Amino acid sequence: MNCPFLKNGSFNGANIAAFVLGAGLYGGFTYLAILMQNYMGYSAFETGMKMLLISGFTIILGPMAGIISGKIGNRWLISGALLIGAIGMIVLRHMMKVPFEWSYLIPGFVLAGISNALVNPPISNAAMSSVDPKHVGMASGILNVFRQVGISFGVVILGINLTEGYNHSLDKQMMGVQNIPAEFKNQMLDVFHKTGAFAGSQIFESKQAEVFKQMPAFGDIKNIVFSAFNTGMKDVDLFIAILLLIGSFASAVLIKKRKPSNQTAVIHMDNAASENSNLK
Question: Which of 84, 90, 212, 216 is the most exposed place for a label (fewest CB within 10 A)?
Answer without folding.
Answer: 216
